[in-house]
Amino acid sequence: xxxxxxxxxxxxxxxxxxxxxxxxxxxxxxxxxxxxxxxxxxxxxxxxxxxxxxxxxxxxxxxxxxxxxxxxxxxxxxxxxxxxxxxxxxxxxxxxxxxxxxxxxxxxxxxxxxxxxxxxxxxxxxxxxxxxxxxxxxxxxxxxxxxxxxxxxxxxxxxxxxxxxxxxxxxxxxxxxxxxxxxxxxxxxxxxxxxxxxxxxxxxxxxxxxxxxxxxxxxxxxxxxxxxxxxxxxxxxxxxxxxxxxxxxxxxxxxxxxxxxxxxxxxxxxxxxxxxxxxxxxxxxxxxxxxxxxxxxxxxxxxxxxxxxxxxxxxxxxxxxxxxxxxxxxxxxxxxxxxxxxxxxxxxxxxxxxxxxxxxxxxxxxxxxxxxxxxxxxxxxxxxxxxxxxxxxxxxxxxxxxxxxxxxxxxxxxxxxxx
Amino acid sequence: xxxxxxxxxxxxxxxxxxxxxxxxxxxxxxxxxxxxxxxxxxxxxxxxxxxxxxxxxxxxxxxxxxxxxxxxxxxxxxxxxxxxxxxxxxxxxxxxxxxxxxxxxxxxxxxxxxxxxxxxxxxxxxxxxxxxxxxxxxxxxxxxxxxxxxxxxxxxxxxxxxxxxxxxxxxxxxxxxxxxxxxxxxxxxxxxxxxxxxxxxxxxxxxxxxxxxxxxxxxxxxxxxxxxxxxxxxxxxxxxxxxxxxxxxxxxxxxxxxxxxxxxxxxxxxxxxxxxxxxxxxxxxxxxxxxxxxxxxxxxxxxxxxxxxxxxxxxxxxxxxxxxxxxxxxxxxxxxxxxxxxxxxxxxxxxxxxxxxxxxxxxxxxxxxxxxxxxxxxxxxxxxxxxxxxxxxxxxxxxxxxxxxxxxxxxxxxxxxxxxxxxxxxxxxxxxxxxxxxxxxxxxxxxxxxxxxxxxxxxxxxxxxxxxxxxxxxxxxxxxxxxxxxxxxxxxxxxxxxxxxxxxxxxxxxxxxxxxxxx
Lengths: 419, 519
Known about the structure:
The complex is a heterodimer of chains A (419) and B (519). By secondary structure, chain A is α/β, with parallel strands linked by helices. Chain A has 10 helices and 15 strands.
């Protein structure tokens, strides 16, 4: 059994590459060792948030940023690629109605009440862009332990917008139908898909309103029917309503993964979860197959092209054995950014830059990972996303953009036949 | 400026100080206990969690072994709620001298420690992860003990009898007049105010810091801090305390405690008990040492590393050079400074082990009683601590049983350690000024496999919601929590622990953006 492309990893990079390739008519298999990383993330698309100062206009800052960081993954894709990837993403995820642009970051509230710059947000979060200030009611649900409206409201009200406006915010807690001990985010999200539950919530929120102009709630507005849940709640409340992402599992992340998975399958692609790639076979400078662990044996899966979107340390794409050398865990590709033996791997303070922050694969202009000699290790292997050297996504707030742009570009390179 | 009187001022809120407070209060003395930080954050909060049977010392330090054996029985009677009766095993591994085992058995007999040889096959059935090449096995009454529970039980008991307890109060100076310590001037860290305490007798129970405190009265106490590191593993690899049957060495004990197990330890003399850190080489040697008892140990997931400083008082002259702290006795010393240094009303109690804290306190309070002319009987060997009246040992399933019986409206805040919202509220009601780290010690939130990745945010935000923290205190407490936790996880950031760290970074920095909450 052979595929046109095997994509290793079902995070944003793997899914972007996989869907793009499948849409172009190729036979694509996406492998994920777990369920993919998208459900851990807030469900927005960060392009460039801090460089290291807060970024207002990612496209305007990108040139200077890449000059300062010539090995950053954004240096491997053009601005045109990035813009094309963003437009494509909005199309593919049309049911979730992402909005935003590369010219103006949105400032979105976090579940701590910090303001987080991001480029694209789904419709359920749109009214939460606080870049120009706002007058908000922040609503928590009694017994839901992943969201605390009073801290969110107080921190938001203390935020500085550099003169662009101010934020007023007030917190309330309302009861929501259901067993308080079972208020898990997914159960909450599903219960809000029941009209009666929404109606009761809408009434409770309405009763609390004073002069506010928008209402923030935890990100549990449905799982499969978020459009219906969100727009109905807005009607019931009579004001714009926006979700605030909180601890994983992220409902907006799960929705995004579901939409991308459907897009993959509709185009004839396959997603196989719970499949760990243990290694690969190669000859004549080409990867022949990846080897996966099955229940009682290993199996070789062949393809013409491979996309390595296996992530970094967090996903096990880069493995750290106790007291040993870091390794890229499938092909053993050379890693850039690992401190030499004997040098500390971690800085003393948590918020300092860490020696291991940027570790990953060096790639050529076609996103092919380099071998020990500096030339591409394999002619038919491309890499994308957090597997790449040079970014600190959670500090820069750049992870989704990098994954989207490099995944999209890797697909483009394969389609062009230039790889 | 605040000032007040007390009969006994106890400096140091670890197990020794808490024990002295409890013992003094039971004897009808008015006692004030102070500590520069939260209680049990010195050596007591950093030890192995082992209630010694005494087996470890039967050959090397027989008098310490006998003390441990007696105190083990007493604490099981009066502090049962703080103790999990895991039992212990001493095991001769291929790395150990087989001849030691007979000396061990004889030593246990001489010290009245009920050690019994069992077939190796029985030991392996009891603990399937043990090294199958073990040649001999002995059971002993080792157990694991919760230091914070014990200290807080002593302190609650003392407070119920009128004792005053002042955590977060540093001693600025001791008041020495007319050749005697008359009391102390303290600084309250939470308000910045000074507090003066007039005491009839002052007890220096500051453990590894006893030398520093004694200096404040012009007395010399040659305590040598002996650094020991511990590594907590992410689950109970063993459910019994397991020891190498050999002369005491590094990394030769694994203690199951609550939801984790802990391997330790090392023993290195240091000069500053506040400047102790585990080095990568020490961490590597602990992981390697575990292999002798449990093959595959070094591949298991480590959760956290920390270091503690033992208070060792060499029986040689104070200030003498100590090269190998393993050779210093583990027995304790009560120092009467009137005799040694001509400074009256001042006593230092130091050395010793957690297992013998009650006896240390008894000896200290006996001396205090003589000095005050109030010689009263010690009752701590028979009077149960608060919550230990039923004499039921702690068992690990207790939390689960409580949770299941609880009302439905009490959500779990920390899933790893089964801490509910109501538990948090009760803990805060008991300690109104509690910081996040104090609650970590009281409830064990953040001590399980996620090390606070999920629950730290919940706790900080809940405390803000309930009015215990204002906005900046909540933000700051969360930042301090992650900084503090970082010290303990970075030395063991490999394998799955490295992945957990990245997940936590995604949560704290990616999702919550803790770094950018407004000041």
